[in-house]
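dumping these here so i dont lose them again. two proteins, back to back, each one seq then C-alpha cells. dont judge the mess
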Amino acid sequence: MTYHAQPQICLELEQCVAQALLPAAPRLVSALFRIAEKFSRVNPLIGMQESCRRLPHLHPEGEWLFITWHLHGSLPHAMYPPPGKPSAGKAFVWMDRYLDSARSGPLFLAQERIANIVAESLYRGALLGHYELGAYAIMANHVHVLLLPRIPPSRLLQSLKGTTGRLANRLLGRTGETFWQAESYDHWVRDEHEWNRVVDYIEGNPVKAGLVRRAEDYPWSSAGKLRRSAETSLGAAGEGACATPPHSN
C-alpha cells in the first residue's frame, strides 16, 4: 500500500488538546469536534475518504456503508453525546434507543406521505446509480440505510437529504426551515457476516421499537410490503434496487 505524506499539524494539535482535556471536560471536547465538523478532508490512506461531519469518518471505497440520520431537533445537543466516554458503537446504540423511544419533538416521518417521499427517494437514488441499496428502515424521526456508494458518500447524502427535506417541507408548509440534522452516523461494513447483522438490525428496528410484531409487517422498511410496491412503481424490480451481500474473503 502506498501512503501520501501530507502535513496535518492542525489535526494533530486538535487531537492532542482533545486527549488532554477528555478526562476532565468531555463536553468541551465534544464542542471542539463540533467546530471541526465544518471541515472535510481526504485521509492520507489511499482509497479512504474522511469527513469530519460524519462518524467514524473513514470509508474505504467499494465497501458497504451503514448510515443513520435524523430529523433536526429530534436529538437535543445537551443530551448527546451521552455522559462518560462511550465508544462510537455504544454512543450510536444510546442515540438509536433515545430516538426510538421519543414521544415528542419532530416525528414527521411517522406520516405516510412523508415516509413515502423518503422511500421513493431511496429507490430513485439506486436507479440513478448513486449506490446499491441493501436495506433501510424509515422510523418516526430517523432513517437507517445500508448501501454501497457509487459516488462520494457526502454527495449522495447531500442529494438524499436535500431532495427529501425540500419535498417534505413543502407538504408540511415549512418551506425554508431545516428538516434534517446536519450530522449523520456511518459505519463501513467489514464482511458478509457483518452485512447480515446490519440488515437484521435495520429491518428489526421497528420490532424493537414496539411498532410491529414482525419486521415484514412494517411498511416503511426493506422488509415490508412497500419494498415490492416501490420496486414495481419505479421500475426497480430488476438489477440495482435489491442488492446482495459482499462475499467474504
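---- next one ----
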Amino acid sequence: MPRTLALRTVVAFLAVVVEAAACVSPEPDLGSSTAEIVDPGAFVLPSLSAAERALIVQKYASLDPNHKVPRALLEDAIVYFDVNKAQIPKTSYFVVVDLSQYSGKDRFWLVDLTTGAVENHKVAHGSGSDPDNNGYATLFGNVDGSYMSSLGFYLTGEIYDGTHPHSMRLDGLSADGSPNGMANTNVRERLIVVHEASYVSDGNASQQGRSNGCLALDPAIEASVVDRIHGGSLIYAAIAPLGAPADLGTCGDATCDRNEDKFSCPEDCGVCGTIDAAGGVVDDGDACFLAGGPAASLHEVTTAGMDSSLVWTHATALPGEQNFAEWSFNFAEAGRYSVEVFTAAGFAQSRQARYVVHTGATDHAIEIDQTAVDGYQPLGEFEFARGAHQFVHLGDNTGEQVANVQLVFDAVRLTRIDDGKEDGAGGGSGNDGGSGGCSTSGNGAGFVIALALAGLRRRRRSSRSR
C-alpha cells in the first residue's frame, strides 16, 4: 500500500474513533456557506410592559395545551413572533429550545400555530458550550471556531445536503449585546445549521452527544421537522426568559378573561348547559359541543347521524391529535350514569376510536369500534360529580395506519342508572358494581381500556364551537 494512502486510512480511522468517543462531528457541519438572505435589522426585540405582553399572549391561548414548553420561554417566542410577524415568511410553526436543560431531556419543542399541538424532541448543543462533556451547556458564543451554541432568535433557511444529509441553514437575528447572552448573527458564516446526527436519540434519556455548535436532531425525526419549518420559520434558543409569564387571570376570579371560555372556566364564563338529574343528550349541534383543530379537516353532514347531523374528520397515526371533539357536562346532581355515543353507519369507519371520559378528577380511556353499531353504543357506566369540568373527549390520533379512515363526532347520551342518591363521587365502574374501571354492556362490540390517565388537559386549539 502506498505510504500516502496508508496515512489517509489511519487518519480516517482515528476520526471515526474520536467521533464515537466524544460524540462531536469531526467535520464542519456545512460544506460552504451562502450569502445571508435575512436582514437582522428588520426585526425588533420587543420591549413591552407586562400588560402589553399579556394582551399578545392572550391571542395565542390555544398553544401548548399540555404545557410541555417552559411557559416564560413560550411567551417570549409568542411575543417576538407576533411583533415581527410581517417579517417572518412562514408562520405555521415556531420552535423553542431551552439550552439550560440537561441534554438527555426533551428541550426542543416544535409548536404548531394552527392546532396548538407541540412536539418535543432531544437536541444536541455545541462541544464548546459543554467543555466538561457532562450534558450541560454553560458557555455560549457567536465566534467562528468556538464550537459553541448561540442563543437568540433565528430564521430557518434552505435545505441542502452537506456532511449530514437534508440539513437546514440558519440565519441569526440577535446581535451581540442582546439580553441574556443572545448573539447569533454569525451562525451562517460559522456554518451552524440544523442537521441529523447519530449521537442524538429521542429514545435516549441519558446524555446526548455534542455537535460543533449546531442544533443536531435524531435522524428518525429530523427530516420531518426540517420539511415543516425550512425557509423562514422562527426558532428561539435560550437559557433564561426575557420576561415573566403573563398574568392571564385565574379561573374562579369572577372575570371571564380572554383565555377562558364556557368550556375551560364555566365558573367565570357561565355553563354551556346543564345535565338534568335523569340524564340528557349533548349533540354535535349543541352549545356544550366543541369541535377543534384545523377547520378544513372538520366535515359537517346534515343527512345522517342523530337528528340528521354529525361531524367527521380523518383518523391519524400521529402521536398528537390535530382535530378533536369534546362534549362538556354540568351535572345538576352527582350520580351514576351510563354513557353512550352515536355512531352512524356510512360515516363511522374508525375501528379504534379512543374516547376519554373525564369524571370528577379522573380520566377513563375507552377504545371502541365505531363501525360495530349503527346508532348508540356504550362507553360504560361512570360516577359523575355534581357540577361542571366533566366531559367526553375524542381525538383524531387513533393510531390507525390506513389512509382516509373517517372518525365520527356525534351525540353523547347520558342516562341515570342509580337510585338518585347523590354521593358526590366521580369515577367509573363496571356492570358488576365494582369500582376502579369501566366496562361496556349490551352488544359487547366495544373494546374497553380501563386506564386512569393523569390530568388530561383540554385542547384549546384553533377551535370552533357549534
